[in-house]
């Protein structure tokens, strides 16, 4: 971005970057203007096979298309006359029984793109299939309503597109102590102390200085604030479990962060899907169960909404390698205490009416879910973040 | 040639230049320097590990091995062999700082991020890596066809599972999306039809390409408006007929070698050159001899990739890692591990190298390598098909790197430089005004010390 455009576009420019002591300015921004609601987003990346997750176990098309991959009726945790949970999703079924889960079926977008990267970009930027957007929808939320980078935290070492705004990004960290120690190096402090203003002369150099400043002040805030609560629950011993544990610590420490993003990989099951997906679903559901308990214990579950999506579902028909290829529409999970429509939000997928590629057709645009969350949960102007107005759903 | 211009050329065509090299080139013309870069890269040697200890299991079928080894012995041997991929990674990094075949090595690294592939079989991935090296400056058409037949690629993008009547579209899709045309420049039908053309493409146990006729679809396919009994090679030919293919590759070349911000007119200029014959060497020569390549707007504006950063530092002060796995750790922390790309789209590059964590780590890297600073970061796990591997995150906190530094090499070249000269040598980007003042007021204890300090400012992240 050109310096001029940057100046024009950055609403924060005058108040944050271009005053002397601009480093401090970050720390002095007033507390957030909205309430305590938190959103946790989980991406099952690689394209989770939704049909073998929430299984249409009475549908002949399902068994016909998947002679080797269909899950036998006896191994399914039945939920309704039509749909059942994968056997490794018992903890999720438990949340369902308590009314904490809403499953939205057939979520997607027109002209689905079956590339992981493009489809992930579409989900993360909230763009249409034929539109290329360089900022993420959470990034734009952070930029417009959060003021501080740490309004959005990604539980990882690097930042995904979803958390990137035009001029302000979210913060990535798996461990606040380490982040703090690294930004607090004496020499860097000296370099920054010298700055009378940020010379955002060239786009990449300006970006580097700005990132340094943001990192320093955000790391300090996250480190100091998150010390107040340490979880003593036992999470599954894997990175996903750890990420959720840290998320719970952030939420229970009342960090002024609104959105947390966690990605769990491994769902690209072109070959030998059965065992791989089973293990992944187990990891997912067991970790979520502990996470929900942790929040409940601290009375923060009522203020937390958990959204789980995957960039696409997989083809209805199995392939020759005991796996599935990239598909289209898929189910989305919402977990929380305030769900209006508990259980299944809408009809099961129609396996008799596929698109020309043999994939499930979407009946719910994923952006209507975002619009609903932004409007009803985070209570901000969804259209200004999604760059378009979408109808709202009725799940919260 | 101007000092800045030689440095610029050597940063883009290689990993920087030292004082001695640069003294020897000062009075040479641009044309000659570029031509020397290309000529010096004509000859090359393959990157090859000594893998003879695995001869007993190399290319053998499971059945053959069962007679020879117990299950446990075999597992141990296979694991040991797979761990060799890491040794190949170290060997590759050392190769990058060698003063031979500079341009070819830089291009090999570039192509590794175009034809992205991953394999844990060290024999196959070594072949794949050397295929990149062999064609790095050659004929792009042959290059694509050879890459498509690499056993590692056939495995990585599931073409081994691409069978008649049950096509697996993974390879066909990525071939167009990521290797040749870019999203939006083909239809879903093109993918389905071309996937059929690649059915039955597989490899023998020894890695040789092999067409499994019973699984190949010999029927008519319609691809980009053409109809015929196409096979995979035909599909690649038809793709290359699209000018978009030349443009797509040139766009990548532009962002990597020239400027992350693409000038459409210049892009069209180099696309026309490349489209003529798909000769990579000619394309690079055209770029490096162009006047506009040396415009100020192109100098010092690119964010170094982690490998460029790491190798660049090593060229100023050569270092040897006493514990090789620490080299792996550094790559992981900065988000670029050679031979282990994140996914088939490769590393996005540019600004995406930089976030709060990576930037802090990158700025700390010179003192980690050269001044015995301590690491306190956790290693990043990997999201990849085997989730179990992802589970095993080692803890590496508060560790020193065990490194032997060749400061004598640095002293010999740089001892007598003034601080201004040292700045000019190490920093290609424009200096931030306040940082320039900061540096002026810095008490300089020694050139060694000042070198580390210079490498620790944001400007050093750019080339």
Commentary on this structure:
The complex is a heterodimer of chains A (396) and B (463). Chain A has 14 helices and 14 strands. By secondary structure, chain A is α/β, with parallel strands linked by helices. In chain A, the strands form 3 sheets. In chain A, strands 1, 5, 6, 7, 8, 9, 12, 13 and 14 form a 9-stranded mixed sheet that branches. Chain A has a 3-stranded antiparallel sheet with strand order 2-4-3. In chain A, strands 10-11 form a two-stranded antiparallel ribbon. In chain A, strand 3 and strand 4 form a beta hairpin. The N terminus of chain A is likely disordered. Helix content of chain B is 53%, strand content 5%. At the A-B interface, helix 6, strand 7, helix 8, helix 9 and helix 10 of A face helix 10, helix 18, helix 19 and helix 22 of B.
Structure characteristics:
heterodimer, A: 396 residues, alpha/beta, 14 helices, 15% strand, disordered N terminus, B: 463 residues, mainly alpha, two-stranded antiparallel ribbon, two-stranded antiparallel sheet, 23 helices
Q: Main sheet of chain B, how many strands, which sense, barrel?
A: 2 strands, antiparallel
Mean pLDDT of chain A: 88
Total number of helices of chain A: 14
Anisotropy-based shape of chain A: globular
Largest interface: A-B, 71 and 67 residues
**What is the general shape of chain B?**
globular
Structural Rg of chain B: 24 Å
Read across the widest sheet of chain B, the strand sequence of neighbours is: 1-2
Q: Beta-sheet strand percentage of chain B?
A: 5-15%
Helix content of chain A: 25-40%
Largest sheet of chain A: 9 strands, mixed
Q: Tell me, rounded to a whole number, the average pLDDT of chain B.
A: 91
Approximate strand percentage of chain A: 5-15%
- Compute the number of strand runs of chain B: 8
Percent of residues of chain B in helical segments?
40-55%
Number of strands of chain A: 14
Number of helices of chain B: 23
Low-confidence stretches of chain B: 380-386, 390-397
């Amino acid at each position: 971005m050109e310096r001029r455009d940057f100046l024009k576009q950055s609403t924060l420019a005058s108040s944050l970057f271009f005053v002397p002591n601009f480093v401090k300015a970050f720390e002095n921004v007033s507390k957030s203007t909205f309430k305590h609601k938190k959103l946790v987003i989980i991406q099952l990346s690689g394209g989770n096979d939704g049909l073998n997750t929430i299984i249409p176990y009475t549908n002949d098309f399902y068994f016909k298309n998947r002679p080797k991959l269909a899950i036998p009726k006896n191994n399914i945790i039945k939920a309704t006359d039509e749909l059942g949970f994968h056997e490794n999703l018992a903890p999720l079924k438990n949340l369902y029984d308590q009314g904490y889960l809403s499953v939205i079926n057939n979520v997607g977008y027109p002209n689905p793109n079956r590339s992981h990267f493009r489809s992930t970009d579409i989900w993360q930027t909230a763009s249409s299939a034929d539109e290329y957007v360089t900022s993420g929808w959470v990034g734009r939320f952070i930029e417009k309503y959060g003021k501080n980078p740490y309004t959005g935290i990604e539980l990882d070492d690097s930042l995904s597109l979803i958390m990137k705004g035009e001029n302000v990004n979210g913060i990535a960290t798996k461990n606040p102590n380490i982040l703090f120690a690294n930004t607090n190096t004496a020499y860097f402090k000296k370099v920054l102390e010298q700055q009378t203003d940020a010379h955002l002369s060239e786009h990449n150099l300006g970006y580097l200085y700005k990132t340094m400043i943001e990192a320093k002040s955000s790391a300090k805030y996250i480190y100091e604030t998150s010390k107040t609560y340490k979880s003593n629950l036992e999470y599954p011993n894997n990175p996903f479990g750890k990420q959720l544990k840290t998320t719970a610590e952030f939420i229970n420490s009342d960090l002024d962060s609104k959105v947390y993003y966690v990605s769990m990989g491994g769902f690209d099951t072109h070959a030998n899907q059965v065992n791989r997906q089973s293990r992944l679903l187990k990891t997912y559901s067991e970790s979520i169960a502990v996470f929900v308990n942790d929040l409940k214990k601290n009375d923060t579950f009522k203020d937390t909404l958990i959204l789980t999506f995957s960039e696409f579902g997989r083809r209805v028909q199995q392939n020759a390698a005991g796996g599935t290829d990239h598909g289209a529409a898929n189910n989305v999970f919402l977990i929380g205490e305030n769900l209006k429509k508990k259980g299944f939000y809408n009809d099961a997928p129609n396996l008799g009416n596929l698109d020309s590629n043999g994939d499930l057709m979407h009946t719910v645009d994923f952006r209507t879910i975002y619009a609903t969350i932004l409007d009803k949960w985070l209570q901000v102007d969804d259209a200004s973040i999604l760059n378009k107005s979408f109808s709202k759903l009725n799940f919260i | 040639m101007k000092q800045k211009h030689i440095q610029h050329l050597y940063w883009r065509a290689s990993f920087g230049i030292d004082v001695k090299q640069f003294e020897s080139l000062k009075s040479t013309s641009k044309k000659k320097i570029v031509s020397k870069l290309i000529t010096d890269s004509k000859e090359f040697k393959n990157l090859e590990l000594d893998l003879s200890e695995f001869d007993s299991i190399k290319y053998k079928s499971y059945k053959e091995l069962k007679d020879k080894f117990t299950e446990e012995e075999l597992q141990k041997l296979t694991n040991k062999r797979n761990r060799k991929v890491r040794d190949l990674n170290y060997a590759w990094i050392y190769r990058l700082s060698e003063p031979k075949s500079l341009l070819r090595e830089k291009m090999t690294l570039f192509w590794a991020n175009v034809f992205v592939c991953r394999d844990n079989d060290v024999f196959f991935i070594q072949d794949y890596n050397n295929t990149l090296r062999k064609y790095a400056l050659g004929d792009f058409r042959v290059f694509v066809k050879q890459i498509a037949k690499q056993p590692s690629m056939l495995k990585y993008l599931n073409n081994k599972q691409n069978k008649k009547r049950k096509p697996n579209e993974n390879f066909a899709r990525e071939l167009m999306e990521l290797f040749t045309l870019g999203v939006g420049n083909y239809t879903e039908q093109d993918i389905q039809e071309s996937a059929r053309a690649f059915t039955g493409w597989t490899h023998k146990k020894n890695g040789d390409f092999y067409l499994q006729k019973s699984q190949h679809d010999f029927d008519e396919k319609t691809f980009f408006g053409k109809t015929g009994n196409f096979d995979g090679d035909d599909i690649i030919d038809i793709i290359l007929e699209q000018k978009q293919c030349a443009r797509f590759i040139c766009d990548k070349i532009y962002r990597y070698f020239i400027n992350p911000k693409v000038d459409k007119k210049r892009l069209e200029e180099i696309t026309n050159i490349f489209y003529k014959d798909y000769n990579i060497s000619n394309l690079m020569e055209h770029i490096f001899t162009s006047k506009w390549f040396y415009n100020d707007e192109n100098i010092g504006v690119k964010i170094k990739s982690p490998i460029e950063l790491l190798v660049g530092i090593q060229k100023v002060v050569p270092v040897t890692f006493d514990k090789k796995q620490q080299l792996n750790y550094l790559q992981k922390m900065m988000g670029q591990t050679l031979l282990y790309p994140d996914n088939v789209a490769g590393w996005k590059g540019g600004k995406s190298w930089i976030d709060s964590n990576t930037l802090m780590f990158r700025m700390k890297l010179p003192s980690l390598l050269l001044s015995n600073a301590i690491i306190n970061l956790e290693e990043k796990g990997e999201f990849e098909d085997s989730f179990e591997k992802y589970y095993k995150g080692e803890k590496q906190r508060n560790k020193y790197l065990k490194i032997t530094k060749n400061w004598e090499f640095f002293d010999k070249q740089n001892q007598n430089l003034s601080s201004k000269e040292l700045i000019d040598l190490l920093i290609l980007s424009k200096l931030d005004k306040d940082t320039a003042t900061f540096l002026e007021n810095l008490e300089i204890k020694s050139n060694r010390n000042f070198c580390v300090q210079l490498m620790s400012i944001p400007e050093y992240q750019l080339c």
